[in-house]
């Protein structure tokens, strides 16, 4: 978590550094590009939850990266984007994972079970692919944008963690799907934009069960994304 805080501070510093630079670079340059750093924060929902599974606490996500802008029309208002980024997500719920020998078993904690935290955490290297529309000009760096596309993610660290007064354990969970992908939609003005990500595959691998039911939960992440020229 300390690394994430430092990463957020670093990109916050870039906001102040690049704001004036971006303005000077745009002015009078008809061949401008919108290569952009981005940072974002989301609230994470879990869709298609098994019966009796519910979310708890604040399920959050943090993301940061860089996107290369590739204009496809003369006015440079339509473009493609490809990038690289890092994303960490936590999903808090009453679905508990426990190691049992070489396997992982799952149960659903009822209301009588007292616990402090129970979560799945993923760390991903991501590749965003975007179709980009904006009403920017060479003389203005403030504009409306709609960026939509796909985002592919590779899980480099997936953990399950449980904390109560009587137990505290955490382990790398191989049941978490390693290759994840979904649809993205970003809309807004200037630096501040609404961000949506809808997963097209499940958070867990196929045939991962709880009480005989497949765990086919899919993330939906909604939040803000900040673009920095």
Beta strand %: over 45%
Strand order of the largest sheet: 1-2-3-6-7-9-10-13
CATH architecture classification: Beta Barrel
Helix content: 10-25%
Structural class determined from secondary elements = mainly beta
Global Rg: 20 Å
Number of domains: 1
Ends distance: 26 Å
Alpha plus pi helix count: 1
- Beta-strand segment tally: 13
- Apparent shape: elongated
Task: Provide the CATH topology.
Answer: Lipocalin
- Major β-sheet annotation: 8 strands, antiparallel, barrel
CATH class: Mainly Beta
What does this structure look like?
- By secondary structure, this protein is mainly β.
- The chain is 11% helix and 56% strand.
- The chain has 1 helix and 13 strands; from the N terminus they run αβββββββββββββ.
- It has one helix at 2-26, and strands at residues 36-47, 60-71, 78-92, 95-100, 103-108, 117-134, 144-163, 168-172, 179-189, 192-199, 209-210, 213-214, 218-228.
- The chain has an 8-stranded antiparallel beta barrel. It has a two-stranded antiparallel sheet with strand order 4-5.
- Strand 7 and strand 8 form a beta hairpin.
- The longest helix is centred in the N-terminal third of the chain and has 25 residues, at 2-26.
- The protein is elongated, with a radius of gyration of 20 Å.
């Amino acid at each position: 978590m300390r690394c994430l805080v430092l990463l957020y501070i670093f990109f916050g510093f870039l906001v102040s550094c690049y704001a004036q630079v971006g303005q000077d670079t745009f002015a009078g340059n008809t061949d401008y590009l919108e290569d952009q750093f981005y940072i974002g924060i989301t609230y994470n929902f879990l869709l298609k939850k098994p019966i009796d599974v519910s979310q708890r606490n604040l399920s959050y996500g943090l993301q940061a990266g860089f996107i290369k802008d590739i204009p496809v029309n003369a006015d440079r208002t339509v473009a493609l984007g490809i990038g690289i980024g890092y994303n960490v997500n936590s999903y808090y719920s009453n679905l508990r994972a426990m190691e049992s020998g070489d396997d992982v078993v799952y149960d659903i904690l009822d209301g009588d079970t007292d616990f402090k935290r129970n979560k799945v955490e993923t760390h991903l290297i991501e590749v965003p692919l975007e179709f980009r529309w904006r009403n920017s000009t060479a003389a203005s760096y403030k504009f409306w944008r709609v960026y939509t596309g796909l985002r592919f993610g590779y899980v480099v660290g997936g953990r399950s963690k449980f904390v109560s007064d009587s137990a505290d354990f955490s382990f790398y969970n191989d049941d978490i799907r390693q290759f994840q992908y979904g649809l993205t939609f970003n809309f807004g003005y200037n630096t501040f934009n609404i961000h949506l990500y809808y997963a097209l595959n499940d958070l867990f691998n196929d045939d991962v069960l709880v009480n005989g039911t497949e765990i086919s939960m899919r993330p939906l992440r909604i939040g803000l994304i900040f673009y920095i020229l």
